[in-house]
Amino acid sequence: MSNKKKGNRPGIRRVGRTCAFQVLYGQSFVKAPDTEALKRWIQFNPAVVDQESISAIEFAENLVLGVVSNRETLDAVIDEHSQHWKLNRIAKVELAILRLCLYEMMFTDIPHKAAINEAIELAKGFGDENSKNFINGILDAAARGMGK
Hints:
The chain has helices at residues 12-27, 35-44, 46-49, 54-69, 71-81, 92-107, 112-126, 131-146. The chain has 8 helices and no strands. It is an all-alpha fold. The radius of gyration is 15 Å and the shape is globular.
């Protein structure tokens, strides 16, 4: 039996989600020209390279590819629920988190509440002191709009 503690280690999905966020954040500065280039960028992203879990890397890649391929739909939802904020005025950190969470809410089986909680954790780790409230407001409104 192993003596390693599991309580303080983040789960595979949280690690993968964090890697996906970092790749998506990078995409807000320089976009990959095509899917194959994006896959290479994911593979060579420092956050992904440092990751030992193959499952976390695969989860991250699926999230990134899903967000990128559904970006217009995700941005329309953000635009609809971000009162008085145009997409180009939303900070890149918050926009990456919003897109990632909305993708999970709309296109995966993760419960909305869990997706929102994960987004708030990302905001606490990567955003400023106002990020979590801003993100929570938009995602809560979007979840209510989805009727779940």
